[in-house]
Structure formats: structure tokens, C-alpha cells
Amino acid sequence: MDRNPSPPPPSREEDEASGDCIGGTVYSKHWLFGVLSGLIQLVTPEDTKTTSDDEEQQKELDEEVENEICRVWDMSMDEDVALFLQEFNAPDIFMGVLAKSRCPRLREICVGILGNMACFPEICVSISNNKNLGQVLLHCLYDSDPPTLLETSRLLLTCLSQTEVANIWVERIREHPAIFDSICFILSSSTNVDLLGKVGEVVDKLFDLDEKLMLEWIRKGAVQPPDPPREDSEEQPVFKIVPCVLEAAKQVRSEHPEGLDVYMRILQLLTTVDEGVQAIVQCPDTGKDTWSLLFDLVCHEFCQSDDPPIVLQEQKTVLASIFSVLSAIYASQAEQESLKREKEDLPLIDSLIRVLQNMEHCQKKPENSTESETEEAKNSDSVQDDFHLKILKDISCEFLSNILQVLTKEMVAQGLKEGQFSKEKCSCAFRHLLPLYSPVVEDFLRTLREVDKTLAGHLEESFPSLKVQS
Fold it and tell me: pLDDT digit string (tens) for 356-365?
């Protein structure tokens, strides 16, 4: 060695004796003071007359400074450190950095630290009640730097998930109409699936929290600007929420399954209001694109015939959302004839029945299970799974009944030929549709009897109530 070894770091006992430790951690107050002071110096240089070179230099972050601030980022996940940062008014320091710094990496880290701090309810309330900080953070949604946008979205989602402060952020977002354009721009143009996933979660949370805001965002794209832009002005794009959501869904489809689940929930939330359904189907291209994407997902990607039945447990929430949206579009077909796709009814029936078949498999009790194992299966997770499966079942049955009641004799004959109406599949459908949808089943059975009297007879034997009615 060409130098003496470094002295060992002080022990925790020594640090506690000196009063330099933050709470119950081994982190040094003195060191943290130094890092925060350095941050202040970064945005308030002594020489206020900066040259263009100085300005360019501020966009880069010194490696040593970056490492130190990243350590604070990691440390801020500890509640003692987060509380200490709060007491030291660190959020105000970060606000100054965000307002003045042109360094993307520095801005990302500062928002990231605030995001970690907001995970603790007491600090989240304090950050949320800071009006100036709130304005600065929302302004970060206009940033062009994907990592900064990601951390900003994470912070917003954390705050929106806190019941005590969620309304504060909803109102702030409503007061900033430009946020709609910024979010739509991200959804329609970004290829960063992590960013799209997190922004999607923010939109999903906003729509779930406030239907009025959702309606406002639906209407924004429905009205074109009254005056055409001047020749000497840059034409601003007119964003519509549904095409932007669809574009983001296509982008995350293969690489981010959780993100796709989020975007399907957004579409499902849109269909809970009439204006949302109209936003999907009123434009032929939008309606066609929505239907095509969702049809492809359920018929060619999710819950396929060669998948193990248990895969339904992983896909139950996204399938429920997709079938719900498809059902809403299907129900509007009487008014939107251009969306009518009879040739796709049979593949949809096949997918819906396969979901119901897999559902039966998932809900079967193991043959060799003991009483203790049976009791254990009744824990909260199992109850939650059953809850989501029940939602999927209800949506699937309603959608299936809607399709069955419009089938013609020719389509039933084709379904028999292609295998959608085998005895096993019809029996499964009947088990789930009866007795709630008895009239639909009875009508279908009458049509089936005209095409295949033998199969109709077998089904009547299996379901005596139908034999009596027919």
C-alpha cells in the first residue's frame, strides 16, 4: 500500500454519544447538513452574473455531488431521516432547486426524495398543504425529462392515495387545465413503459376519485377550437382522452402487463358515464380501434385454450375491465351500426365460456385437502380472489347473454360446426347463466333445437327446468 489505511468509521455508540445520529439510524446529521447546504449553493451561486457557459454547466451535475444527493435519496426511505429532513425544511430547499435548476438529474433526485418522504402520512400532509410547493410539483408535469416525470407521477400517486389530502391535489389539478394536455402528450408519444405505467396509475386514480374531473377531461377533446390557428402561429394539437389511452395501452401491452391492466381500468371507468361511452363510439376510428385492441386481447392473448386454468387468477382484473368495455360498446351497436361485427360474436362467445370454465376450475376445492387446509383457504387473500372472480363472472355472464340473444339460426349452426357450442361448453354457459338469464337461455335453446335436436335434448336432460319451460 502506498498510503496508510483509512480510519474505521465511528461506531453507532460513538455517534449516539456525540448526538450526531439521526433518530435511531447511523446516518450523520452533520453530513446531511453539508449536502443540503451544498444544494442551496447549487441554485444560489455567489456570482449572479452567469455567462452562457455557466448556464450550460448548471445542466450537468458533478459526479461527487450526485453520489451524495443519491445517498440522501436512499436514506429518505427511512422514516427517521424523512422526519429529520422535514424538520430541517428540506422540502423548501428542494422547491428552490425545482424552481431554479436546469439540471434534469438534480430535479429528478429532488422530486424522488420528496416522493419517498410523502410515503409517511404526517409528511405527506405537510407537503400537500404547502401551496407553493404544490404548484412547483405540478409544474414538473410539463418537464421534458422522462425520469423527472416518472418521479413526479410517483409522488402524485402517493399523495392521491392518502385520503386526507387526495382532494387537495384533485382540486389543484383541476385548476391547471394544461395538465390534461401534458398527460395526453405523454400517453400518446412516450415509449417509456415505466413512465406510461405510472402516469396511467395517476389518471386511473384521478378518475376513480372524481367523476367531475373525468367528465371535464372527456369533454376537452370533444370540442374543437372555435377559431382556426393563425398562419403565423404554431398549431396546437387537440388531444382526446380515448385515443391517447389507447396509444399508451398499445405501447405497454407486451412489456408492462400491470400497465395494461391500468389502462383497461381507465377505459372501464370511462364507460361508467354516458359521455365516456360516446367518447369511445362516436368517432368510427376510435370505436374501431378500441374494439379491435380489446377483441384481440381476449381472443388471442388472455386465457387461451393452451393456458393452464389457474392463469385466470393472474388475469381476472384485466379481463373484467376488457369485457366490461366490450360489453358497453356492444350494447351501443343498435345506435352505432358501423361497429356491428357479427362475425366476431362466435370468437367472443368462445372466450367468455372458456373464462367461465377456468373459473370453475379455480374455485374447485382440492380432493385431498384436509379441514385445516380448507379453513386456511378462507383467509383474506382467498376472499379477495373470490371477490374479483365474482366480478369477472357477473360481467362475463351479462356480456354472454347479450351476445346469445342476438344470434341467428345460421350463426348457431356455424358455432356448432366450429366447436363453440359443444355440449360441454353449452353446459358450462347454462350453469352460469341460470337462473338469472333464463329467458335468454330458453330462446337460445329453441334456436339450437332447430339446428341440432339431439344436443338440445341432452341439454334439456341436464337442465330439467329448461325442459319444462320449453
Answer: 999 998 877 6
Average pLDDT of the segment spanning 261-275:
97
Cell numbers that stand for 135 in this block? 404548484
The set of cell numbers assigned to 353 is 365460456
Instruction: Evaluate the omega torsion of the peptide bond into residue 104 and state whether it is cis, within 30 degrees of 0.
Output: no
pLDDT in tens, 104-129: 999 999 999 999 999 999 999 999 99
Burial of 64 (0-12, 13-18, 19+ CB in 10 A): exposed
C-alpha cell of residue 80: 427517521
Q: Could you tell me if 373 and 380 are in contact, meaning their C-beta atoms sit under 8 angstroms apart?
A: no
Please, how many CA atoms are within 13 Å of residue 317, restricted to the half-sphere of its CB? 14
Cα dist from 191 to 195, 197, 203, 246, 250, whole Å = 8, 11, 17, 13, 10
- The three-class DSSP label of residue 21 is strand
- Alpha-carbon separation of residue 92 from 86, 97, 111, 182, 183 (angstroms): 9, 9, 12, 25, 26
Backbone angles phi, psi at 28, to 5 degrees: -90, 130
Cell of 432: 352460469
Q: Does residue 295 carry a pLDDT above 80?
A: yes
Closest C-alpha among 434, 428, 439, 435 to residue 353? 428
